Amino acid sequence: MAENILIENDGSVQLIIINRPDKLNALNKQTIEEIGDAVRTADASQEITAIIITGSGQKAFVAGADISEFANFNGKEAHALSQKGQSTLFNVVENCHTPVIAAVNGFALGGGLELAMSCHIRVASDNAKMGLPEVTLGVIPGYGGTQRLAQLAGKGKAMELIMTADMIDANEAYRIGLVNQVTSQDELLTTAKKMAHKISRNSSVAIGKAIQSINDGFRDGVNGFESEIKHFGDCFDTADFKEGTTAFLEKRKPNFPGN
Ligand code: COA
Asked: Which of 6, 108, 144, 235 could form a disulfide with 17 if both were Cys (CB 3.0 to 4.6 A apart)?
């Protein structure tokens, strides 16, 4: 039984709510494992078509990795922490076949922004504050932040935000391409759910293959164009493709079987 997250279903959309509001939802080891397990379970389920990750309370999405847990670590322990976190959670979210939307409802700092950036899409409330303040602690982002911020906002912005440790607001995050949409806090979950349900009406098989192809373009030693050719071809052998094309020709809405 998970202690630090709550799970709610809205039809076929699953909400994973990080629930340590008294610690601004900081990611300790257990929380990282619980979110990772929940994402893996949802991804394996035929019933779940989209996932939303958000924080509980009005103040924070996630205010970072739990500083109290690693303050006394040595280099070897920190190396293991970073490696385990990336493989247990951050890479799992990014490579999930089911679309994952971050609903950023307040502070998304350090590991919190890194978690949001590992999601496929980010929607932020207008009170959100984002940043990678690790250098103020004498460390660098360790859950993929140096890579994903540069991918999303460009190398120059990543250099600036990481070196200055500046916190930016939701509108600036939107301006630099870090978030896809900004909304009021009241509307945040409705907006994220609306997007999730819209995505869910499309072919889940095709969406999974699109996620893989896009991610492959950012992988060392993998040619994204070759990956696209493979996944494009594979789509033609799926029931979703048969249904999608048949429905178009019959002038009706598709009812995708999801395989
Ligand atoms: N790790 C562990 N605990 C954290 C935390 C983190 N990353 N961020 C917040 N908390 C805890 C605080 O220690 C405090 O706990 P306490 O009440 O038991 O003392 C509680 O959450 C509330 O935080 P507080 O600092 O009192 O709230 P605030 O509104 O004054 O400030 C922040 C909010 C986000 C500016 C501030 O909490 C902060 O700077 N957090 C750390 C951000 C960071 O450096 N993240 C990167 C980590 S690698």
From this structure: 6
